[in-house]
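[User] I wish I could look at a protein chain and see how it folds. I have put the entry right below:
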Amino acid sequence: MQIEGTVTVITGAGSGIGRTLAREFAAAGSSVVVGDLSADGAAATVEAITTDGGAAVAVVGDAASTDGITRLLDAARDAFGPVDVYVANAGIIGASGLGDDEADWDLILDVNLRAHVRAAKALVPEWEARGSGYFVGVASAAGLLTQVGAAGYSVTKHAAVGFAEWLSITYGDKGIGVSCVCPMGVETPLLSGITDSADPQARMAAAAVRNAGEVMGPERVAELTVAAVRDGTFLVLPHPAVLDMYRQKGADYDRWLSGMRRYQAGLGG
């Protein structure tokens, strides 16, 4: 896809990977709708983009809800025109362990998975009719491997990868591109939050991420994601070692599970 002249919606763009993605798409010539729950965060991202000469508007709201997604798409059409690229980036770590109640699961399923499904339902018919469009699902290496300490995060990231695969298989020959972004450790407010958490399981999850390999800044993730959209590449792996880990997992699942149990025990789990 030629990114210059497109309209891109990015959720969770008030900080972290989302903010860097918004700036990278804008630098590539796309007009960007910055979605976030934080008005201050969204405004700061828009200011950074416009200061650099880009075009952006902020939309404050819940991108996990159908109404919130409608607001994002309407704002994009009003400000710039039809949406060409949708980046489902917003995500949460959720409760540790199995979660305390069903509300924990409902929340993380809504934010990390159903938000992707609802956005696709709103956009795919339009994209299919005009023969073009691009969906980016920001998942995690946890969606290919797993996440120690947080069942909800691991399950929903696996599901986000599966949904992106399904979209690509179903619509890839109809002009709709799909990329799935699966970084390992990235220095973001999400990772900082669990690193400093009072919950020992959350801290163990953070240690698992930090000890697994390089914790990079979000800039590299954004660069590779924009390149993937430009080139039509499905799987985006900012940490190349994830591919080796994924292959080892598939080559001997029981051995991999045993290794993960040992790794968890070494972290105090």
Remarks:
- DSSP finds ten helices and seven strands in the chain.
- The chain has one domain: 7-241.
